[in-house]
Amino acid sequence: MTLKTLALMLVIAGMLIAAGCSAPAALPAATGTPAGEKVLPMSGNVTLGSGNKTVNVFLHSIELDAKAENETGRTVTIYVAAENTGTEPVMFVWFSKLTDANGNSYGGINVSHKGSGARTAWITPGDTEAARDYIDQLTNQDLGVLSKGAVLDVYFFEKSGPDGTIGAEPDYHVAWTIEPGAILG
């Protein structure tokens, strides 16, 4: 193991510890939230909800969009998928936040997707939908640090009623570790 590899592993371990220690206290202890705000691997999934309303969520993909000539920053596109494993239709809005190894955060509630977050249609039982969220205006310097690994926090708001209203606080919070190289700057 090289010194560079060891240093990178220590930085990522420190980031994971910091992410677990810095979770906002206002998040509800909702059924399905990983115990102790556990950070899942990129391939991890978790079931949210209870009773007739349950969904299995997982990170479908994360990618860096191509830069257009007239853009000042780059965009990271994040697809999270939700499979309805319950017996009732569900609808969600979710917001993504990336935190780099230096503790800098990008996106978040009412910020990602230009403030509107990713939105699903009604997901019927047995169906899966992957909704697109994005974090934009990232500089090459931001992307350079994010390319070394990050934590993706996703805050889920369940829509209710015929008009699809959401509450003021997220219903669920899930965090995934983004492996080094997954976001290439």
UniProtKB/TrEMBL annotation:
Higher taxonomy: Archaea, Methanobacteriati, Methanobacteriota, Stenosarchaea group, Methanomicrobia
PROSITE patterns, sorted: PROKAR_LIPOPROTEIN
Species in which this protein is naturally found: Methanoregula formicica (strain DSM 22288 / NBRC 105244 / SMSP)
Stated name of the protein: DUF4352 domain-containing protein
